[in-house]
Amino acid sequence: MNRACLIVFIPLLFMLSCHSDKDKSNAKTQSINKAWRKVPDSWINRALRFNYGKVDTTLLHEFANFIKPDTLNNPHTEHVDPNYGLIFNCISVDLDGDQQNELVCLVGWDVYSPYLAVLKQINGAWYLIYKEEIDTFYNSPTIYVANSYSREKTFYLRRVYDHGSGIYIDGYSFYKLDNNQVYKCLDIVNDAHIEGWGLFINQSVKSDFEFDGDSDDALSVNYTYNFFPGSIYPSDYSWDGHEDKPLINGEETAYYIYDSKKHKYKLDIPSYENKATDLTAEKIACFGDFGDDSLFVKAYRRQIDTVIKIGTPWQKKLLRKYLLLAQKSKTVRTEILEEKASAGGTKFYGPKK
Question: What is the pTM of this model?
Answer without folding.
Answer: 0.87
